[in-house]
Amino acid sequence: MYFIPVPNVKVRTRPHASQSQHAGRMRPINKREAGVWHQTKSLLYKNLLIKWRTKQQSLQELILPLLLLGLLILISTLNPHVYYGGIGTMELESENYLPIKGLGYTPITNVTNHIMEEVAQELHMQDRLEMFANEEDLENASLYEPLGYAGVVFRDNMSYRLRFPYNQLPLPSDYTESIASCFSNSVNCRAANYWYSGFVRLQTLIDAAIIQMQTKRSVWREMDVRVVMMGQPGSVEVQKFPHALISIYLVLAFTPFVSFLIVNVAAEKERRLKDTMTMMGLYDIGLLVSEGGAQNHAV
């Protein structure tokens, strides 16, 4: 008996017109696209669960900034800011008595002798006026009166330099000194030492003697000097050390958040990568060896 093979024949039928119309109208009625709010809510719930399961990390993120904040408050309490009340404009009283015990000058010429004799006469220091051949001898003589000796070094007939003890005048580069002494008492203010040490008066008398010598006219009364200390409103002197710690605190306070965020994101990506490798039939040891080799190469 023989079987004759018969080819497969597919019979195609045209669908009914009413069936085609119903098929075109069919749409999924239960499908709902997830919005941004639903995704955010789900991810937020997931992150809250992770925070609840990793309580140690959560406590570190909360406690470490609070400890740093308490330390910052303690340091600020131990180093409070200093408030100074405002002062009004005041005129410094004139000092008739100069704290100068000796007065010397150099070099010795007819012009310098005439100028310094006029100055010594106005200061009533004729018996304490000394002349020196050079500046080195003047400095050596000042060592015997280190707190009350003033010197005048003439460069020419019109210019000169005043030499005073180092502790009686502020340095020209002294810009950062506290103004507390100026608020409490003008006598202890470093800026007023030019007036109370006799520096201004000695300079005024020398200038008047030079002008009189050049113009042949007396200007002693016209060279009267009045010094006024300008007032200023109240101010707060900020301590630099606690102020600098604030910048360090702002960095350290967010360190736990950033570090744990990086660790969690890296762990999540590594877990997903391991799942993908497992689905592909690969081994986890390959991932670990490759990451270790990359780190060693970078180091």
TrEMBL record:
Organism: Alosa alosa (allis shad)
Cellular compartment(s): Membrane
Single GO molecular function: ABC-type transporter activity
InterPro entries linked: ABC2_TM (IPR013525), ABCA (IPR026082)
Protein's UniProt name: ABC-2 type transporter transmembrane domain-containing protein
Keyword Protease on entry: no
Assigned GO CC terms: membrane
Topology of this chain in the membrane: Multi-pass membrane protein
PANTHER family recorded: ATP-BINDING CASSETTE SUB-FAMILY A MEMBER 5 ISOFORM X1 (PTHR19229:SF209), ATP-BINDING CASSETTE TRANSPORTER SUBFAMILY A ABCA (PTHR19229)
Domain ABC-2 type transporter transmembrane: 61-289
Transmembrane segments: 62-84, 246-267
Keywords: Membrane, Transmembrane, Transmembrane helix
